[in-house]
Amino acid sequence: MYQELAIIAVFTFCYSVISGRVDKMSMSGPIVFVLVGLLLGPSFLSWLPADVAQIEYRTLIDLTLALVLFNDAASSDSAVLRLRAGLPARMLLLGLPGAIGLGFIVGYFLFGDLAVYEVAILATMLAATDAALGKAVVSNKAVPARLREGLNCESGLNDGMAVPVLLVFIALAHGANGGDSQVSALALVAEEIGIGAGVGLLVAGIGAWLLKEGAAKGWVSNVWAQLSVPALAISCFALAQSLHGSGYIAAFVGGMLFGILAKEATHKLVMPSEGIGEAMAMLTWIIFGAVIIARVAAEISVEIALYSLLSLTVVRMVPIFLSLAGSGESNSSKLFLGWFGPRGLASIVFAIIVINEQLPGGDLIATVVATTVLLSLVAHGVSANPLARWMAGREGKAGS
Fold it and tell me: Which is nearest to 89 in space by CA: 136, 144, 135, 146?
């Protein structure tokens, strides 16, 4: 145990020293983490054991996604959304359902072994995007602000919006497989979503008020203030789960309310939580490289590879392109926004959820998701900086 801990701790420190440099290269942080996991895992050095996924892996990824959902929702700048809501609103309200629908159509024809609702589950899992894999785009000031903020808002909110859709399809799949009736299953999901939303609003509302009052009275120390947001995010998640609600919904809704109530102090308060979330995401990516890649490589078929490729291109880009019709954006901007829909942490977490649901097609779904994430990891990580420079150049010429 201590050997693995030492390896991960030393790597984390070394990466922190060069993290800024990596951000400027054609290689994202998640690529580095996955490669390190692959190198240290059973496929090569075997310094990380093959059963690393058994060490409370589900708890790790649950807490990681809870933090990510809360942080992203809280960081969604309400002022930006009001002033420049057009792009993210179109991509979320039109592009996201379109991607799920087109992903379903493609999956229906490629995977005959999957039931209808299982195909819908797969399409939903791969509709959620992860800005971390294209960080160079959303952090590059040369890229026009409207495009950066549009992608950042979309990726910050669409995984939370995908959660209730995923839960509904899982319930319908269980009903179709002879479990509870579909009506009963949907009622349970509605209850789960309602409890999650209620808990998130209550905990975040009380937490934001207490934090504000404590700060006003000078009761909050600088050190403990850094722990307030991650503690609040995990409180939302864990309390909702303990009450048989959706912890993911609670974290997402709670984060949105916290961001609204904290106003201009949000960025300062959320930053430490983002650091913790980054560290936990790094562990998830290392485990992905150490354990998942070798298993997935042996299971990849032509159909899986084709679906993964289409998911990252046609399935994502066509709905986004169409959703931006009449927005005034150029075709190059629409394609740029469509391309940068990386699949990452949320899809991995969704895959673990589906595996635990023990659906007949769960293993195939997880393999497709892992393959798509792996392909996205490389394609979006490598293309982020070059395409960001290309888009900045095009916009500069158009404006001159």
Answer: 146
d(CA 140, CA 38): 29
Contacts made by residues 19-24, CB under 8 angstroms, sequence distance 24+:
23/135, 23/136, 23/139, 24/136, 24/385
Cβ atoms of residues 30 and 344 within 8 Å: yes
pLDDT in tens, 85-117: 678 889 999 999 999 999 999 999 999 999 999
* Tokens linked to 174: 């269980």
Compute the distance between CA of residue 251 and CA of residue 238 in angstroms, rounded to an integer: 9
Q: Are 130 and 347 in contact (CB under 8 A)?
A: yes
Check if the beta carbon of residue 334 is closer than 8 Å to that of residue 316: no
pLDDT in tens, 283-328: 888 888 887 887 788 889 999 999 999 999 999 999 999 999 988 8
CA dist 45 and 290 (Å) reads 10
**Burial class for 90, CB neighbours closer than 10 Å (0-12, 13-18, 19+):** buried
Distance in angstroms (rounded) separating the CA atoms of residues 244 and 147: 39
* CA nearest neighbour of 369 among 168, 99, 121: 121
- Quick one: DSSP state of residue 333? H
> Thinking of the domain 55-262+291-399, which architecture would CATH place it in?
Up-down Bundle (1.20)
In order, the DSSP letters of 114-168 are: S-HHHHHHHHHHTT---GGGGHHHHH-TTS-HHHHHHHHHHHHHHHHHHHHHHHH
- Of 50, 105, 100, 106, give the one whose Cα is nearest residue 320: 100
pTM for the model? 0.86
| Residue-by-residue DSSP string for 34-62 | HHHHHHHSTTTT--S-GGGGGTTHHHHHH
Q: How many residues does the chain have?
A: 400
